[in-house]
Amino acid sequence: MSASTVIAALLFLITTTVSATDHIVGANRGWNPGINYTLWANNHTFYVGDFISFRYQKFQYNVFQVNESGYDNCTIEGAKGNWSSGKDFILLTKAKRYYFICGTGGCYNGMKVSVLVHPLPPPPAASASAAEHSTKSAAPVPPGSVVVATILAVLASIWSGSGWI
Questions:
Q1: Is 117 in a helix, a strand, or coil?
Q2: Which of 20-24, 107-111, 150-154 is least confident?
Q3: Is the pLDDT reported for residue 121 higher than 70?
């Protein structure tokens, strides 16, 4: 089995086991000057495990993750990450506020977005009758978490070139 087949199967498992959302910045208008990204972000709810993706002309724009000062002043000094593929998918791993800007000058024309990422909501509570019949046991494992951890370990091994596939 080829590595690409394994990766495709793992991605299928991730998308069917965990319901992450891919938030495409600017929707069908993409990452371009003159768009109100604050309004766009305010119409989305971001959770840990979601993706934020940027679509733009590869050699014209880019994306930098910066701190609040970098966002406010359109500076990339001390950037926490940068992307320039034209189709960038960024995993939102923590519940916090993220700041993204264009580092080619587009920030001064509105190409910046700030998103607040929320923790995952708790799983639905078990019914009362199920709780009455349950016995003491170890803490339950959230659905899909073992699968996700396994998939991430496999992807990390492939990414680092361990060569076991």
A1: strand
A2: 150-154
A3: yes
C-alpha dist (Å) from residue 136 to 122, 123, 128, 132, 142: 20, 19, 15, 11, 17
Integer Cα distance of 80 and 100 in angstroms? 10
Q: For position 127, what pLDDT does the model report?
A: 56
User: Measured between alpha carbons, how far is 6 from 12 in angstroms, rounded to an integer?
Assistant: 10
Give the separation between CA 58 and CA 34, rounded to whole angstroms. 18
How does residue 2 score in pLDDT terms, banded at 50, 70 and 90?
very low
Interatomic CA distance for residues 39 and 25, integer angstroms: 11
Beta-strand runs (E) in the chain = 22-24, 46-47, 51-55, 63-66, 81-83, 87-91, 97-101, 112-118
Asked whether 40 and 27 are in contact (CB, 8 A), the reply is yes
- Antiparallel, parallel or unpaired: β 81-83 and 63-66: antiparallel
Write the pLDDT tens digit of every residue in 9-53.
Answer: 444 444 434 579 999 999 999 999 999 999 999 999 999 999 999
Give Rg (Cα) of the chain. Answer: 19
